[in-house]
Amino acid sequence: MTLTDRSASTTTPAAPPGSSTGSSTRSPGAERGSDDTASRIWHSWTPVRQRTRPAIVRGAGYHVWDDAGRRYLDATSSALNAVCGYGESRIEAAARTQAAQLHHFELSRFTHRPAAALAERLTGLLGGPLTRTVLVNSGSEAVEAAVRIAIDLWPLRGEPRSRVVTLERGYHGSTALCQSLSGLPHLANRYRDPIPVTRVPLPREGAALRTADGLERAFELIEQAVAEPHEDGPPAAVVLEPLLNVGGGIVLPPGLLARLRRLCDRTGALLILDEVFTGLGRTGAWFASQHEDVRPDLMVLSKGLNGGYAPIGAAVAAGHLAEDFAAEPVVGGLRYGHTTSGHAIACAAALATLDVIEEDGLVARSARHGADLLDALTAGATGPLVTDVRGRGLVVTVEMADADLAARLVQAATARRLLLRQQGRAVMAVPPLTIDETGVREIAESVAGALDDVRTGGRP
Fold it and tell me: What is the CATH T-level fold of the domain 92-359, as seen in this structure?
């Protein structure tokens, strides 16, 4: 029995309309998630008026099933976070055991063992200066914590800085502060920006960044934003993703992170790497920054941290940054946190997830199967509708000529029982790290077939 099925054997029949007997307040169909009850959900990031979508009711491995019994290969990893796939008994058992012992205790005045163990584990994985972990509930909260640390630090050093440099096409979360970091139109912050932000544009074509000229141009634009005089003063921090997710599955030019690290050292700006999406094996390394052996001042983690089994996020800071906060005049530390920050069940699930990643060699599998998937899609996703195929690890992007074609490709793939992710013109295959040779082949064949359906207007 799982944590969510305790009442499965004691279903109470619904009382007839107007009846005063029985205590159930469930509407008809609530048990199975009918069209009527599903309409009560205000789905995030989607139009309010949209056709009814199927309910996903079960998952196993890298497949999920809907309420009509249809099986899909999930090349979206749910919200890009199901890195260990579905039905992983070792993570379920860890969460169940922790729930029975201590579900949570808040961390502002006390600690608990799962939080302490997770912070210690992350320090060991990251190495070097990253030794102090702030545990939160999501990637957005982790980014906000990291940016707050960077900005609050400078007055303590006697040199107030508040400006942040980001990439225009970056995505860092959905709080007001995090949305203000991005220049993507659909993420526009409708309120007054809480901090000054310089957003650096990159070439629109993903392929343009993979050339030597692309690297030089990208670095030149970032260097200008960081090092040249600005009305808001020098930046407190530079925040970026090592591989852009919502911005279109963009692989940054090799060498850019290393040069950016040297630029930050020269100007004093803190380097914050947002590895919410790329961390914990997704790109074929534990952390995407390890491809260039770059150590940031702060790293942000979330999606892969516990495989989607419970909400969690982390901002891991260099130890000396925490020491600077001893001079903070009010609380002598970080003024940030939430009721369930570092939730004990989530921390236990995260520790078990890290065990699974290590024991099953999922980082190496991501590198190996990601290379195979990139080769297969490069060979199979061809023709005038496709403008680029790129990837790193188990992030492979097929860039279409326009966003409408990308949407049609995702729809055609769904009809073939393959779930893909659309970001503008980009269609991304981001399967769980547990994918195998059979799954890679199925993704490649389904994408090729879906492209044919888009070209011909046919159906599978």
Answer: Aspartate Aminotransferase; domain 2 (3.40.640)
